[in-house]
Amino acid sequence: MLTILLLLAVTWIGLRYSMLWLSVISGLILVAYLMGFRKERHAVASGKPKIRPIIVKRRYTGPASIYPSKMKIKVHPNWDTREWWERALGGGGAVAGLLAQGFAPKGPARK
Length: 111
Prior knowledge:
The protein is built from three helices and no strands.
């Protein structure tokens, strides 16, 4: 319902303000929407699934967990996963920002 009201409003705006192209486009979209809206809908299935579930009858024989009981993660503090060109563009943007500011600090305005 809201789609129909929106398309009607856009068509009216196009006619009201002498924008024929806007009213023609929105009118065509409105007609296409209404024609597609009136198609008959298919009946709902009887509630039974159309796809039968796959039942695996084998027993899993692998380890209980693929993760060790204790994990150690070493993280480099300057580790960056971006590509080289993304880092280069970021550096270029920082330099351009400094040049645009005239190397002024980012604090409160100076007196």
